[in-house]
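Inputs:
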Amino acid sequence: MAAIDVSGLEREYRGGLKAVDGIDLQVQAGEVYGFLGPNGAGKTTTVRMLVTLLRPTGGRATVAGFDVATEPQKVRRKIGVALQEAALDQLMTGRELMELQATLHGIPTREVAGRAQDLIGRVGLADAQERRVGTYSGGMRRRLDLAMALIHAPEVLFLDEPTTGLDPTSRATLWEEVRRLKNDGTTVFLTTQYLEEADQLADRVGIISAGKIVAEGTPTALKAEVGLPHLDLSFDGDADLARAREVLAPLGEVRDVTPPGADVSLGVREGSSAIARVVRALDDAGLTVGRVELVEPTLDDVFAARTGSHLEGAGEAGAAA
Amino acid sequence: MHELAFSARVVWALALRSLRGALRRPQFLAPLVIFPSMFLAVNVGGLTRTTALPGFPVVDGFLDFQLAGALTQSLLLGGVATGIATALEIEGGFFDRLVASPIPRTTIVLGRLLATGVTAAGQVTYFLLVGFLFGASVKGGVPGVLVVYLIGIVAGVGFGAIGQAIALRAKSASSVQGIFPLVLVVLFASSAFFPRNLLSSPVDTVAKYNPLSYVADGMRHPIIDGVGATSLLEGVGSALLVVLVAGAIALLALRGRLREA
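Outputs:
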């Protein structure tokens, strides 16, 4: 049974705007599913329906085997939720909020303090737990939010843009925690507008645009759909480019168009592992390679291929590393 | 039974959170007593001779009479503060956290109302102490004090429910804050500050049907006269009426809000 099973899910607002327009998706237990799309694509609306905060106006969705529309209370017992804006009471301390969250999930009183301590330590907030949340940095709040979402060991965890606006260090810390959750077997539904985040963390990615899923699959398969990785090569001195193309032809797909700053562009199916072979062949032919750059298709290329436009977070992908 | 125990635990936890928040945000709590205290001081300082008016109840001092008015005003402000806190919770997203939790929906309203009740007890204590400090006395003795507490707490919860209902409909703190002038109008159209028989038409007619009159008189009677069955029943009855009507409206507003989602 799928941990999340969505069929024809719709959300139409007054005035006829369809924020989510008949999406279908399945997330298997233990899988990290990346839900990628630009602002306003329908990511948050979808999450809000799946976590029972918003009623679907069409279609059906089950989470952990329970229908979000007809069995919302059962769904709530099975899920952990960290929404886009870490909704934390700034007047409470980290420990108080953890303990409140434990109470809201019916954890026995004798276990509350222990569980809170474990998770606060796990997200690196042990030293800050007696401070009011209002004094926390953005990264600390997100980590606390994540810890709160995990207090009842949920079967399915929803993370709505968990790293938006975070500095690279905080982002890396959260990524690490998501990887740990995956290793522990937790199903994670992660929305993001960062390509690299989806690429790094997700087993499978669904790309949403204007309320519809426009592509779905593993990051590798999706990227393979839009083209081969390629090596952009430039040579020292006045190299014979015609000779270079001749040498490279059996090694891959020599491209007609070469990007600025390079002399030859070569499509190579095997990606980075082709570099040594290509450089050696050119060297044997007396051509000295000055610079070689591997360029791989990104999920933004997938998005662009399917929608004709680019993702807003595409430019920030590198910053997320 | 298990579900009931869970609900009780959640209500207590949410009330505790609300109380902590109130204590840690003195700028919200202080106006509940400071503004009515200043009003009380001005009234008592400048209008003492009112007690000589024909038809004015026999009192030891004007402060004794005005205490219930100040207390009613304070409790009403407590209701506004409850509404603002609820609206801020909605604006800040914490309300969504509660809704996404597997708790009975009513506990969201009841938790904050329990905190409002505890705050109301604190407000009663404050005004009784101020009264005693400046020479007032409670004619009804200890039973009289208990009646003031009873009516004060129940009315405080009722006013809190009104604030919550408005917040759940309006969803914004500034909208709830906007009812403040209306609160004053409703308060002055009651017998909170002057005996109903001394009010002119049409305010005396409005005051006759204004539950605040009975809440204020219910708390006033044990202070200036002693515990009497009629004023006790009218005071407790009207306070309970406010709780039931406003509580039902707040729960309906919650339901409406969740249905809208």
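Remarks. The two ends of chain A are 34 Å apart (CA to CA). The CA atoms of residues 76 and 200 of chain A lie 28 Å apart.
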